[in-house]
Amino acid sequence: GVGFVSSGTVTLEQAYIIYSSIFHATFIKYLYDLLETGFSLPGEREVFYNFRESRPTAPDVNSLRFRQGPLMERSEILDEIAVVGRYTVETGLVDSFFGNISYFSDGIVYISQTGASLDGLDGFIDPVPMDNSSTYGITASSELPVHRRIYETTDCRTVLHGHPKFSIIISMLCDKRAVCEIVDCGKNCPETRMFGDIPIVAGEIGVGGIAKNVPPVVREFGRALVFGHGAFCVGRNDFKEAFTELARMEEACSTGYFRLLRQRLDAV
Fold this sequence. Notes:
By secondary structure, the chain is α+β, with helices and mostly antiparallel strands.
């Protein structure tokens, strides 16, 4: 019970990504299981309540500076992507390696590279033509097919994708699980479930998964939460709308989680 150790085959950054991923998954797993099992260790309840009271508050979006769109200059677009990427990490919405971001202008999707840290995107943003006339897509985020399809089917210019912890926990809660015959819910569930006004869909990363399921929901609601994965939020002209929606979604899911936990603990 002393923690965990990670390593990288080439760089220290690889070790950090693995470390962050384990911490991220463990955090989500613990809070998810807590809804099912409740507290089981001496002093656990007190430690948990201290965590709840000390966790960061929701970001004050109005205190952040966003460029008003539409953005036309390449340098302006690249700079704004880097700035907003930092915002997502600095405000505690996501951890560095858990998300991607893009801006669409003049037939080009400017998108963060695969494995790039959201709070260090300078020099790690790829300009990918919608007509595939260049090879920039090779190093682009693996979520490029989702971003591309959203731009093809909506009039939005920005997509912000993050893995906020409480949103992910809420995405995996389903009242039908006990009677549902689907084994792999995150891959095969055909329904669009709702948590308040937040739509939740299933799907794997790739062209046939979330790239198929997310865009229609985003077109209707302006946002989508993917089972066990994360959130996609969009903006019509600039990033303020997308960032605001991501922050609002995580706050709603955080509030909802603690409400559900209180109800289930009271029922024991």
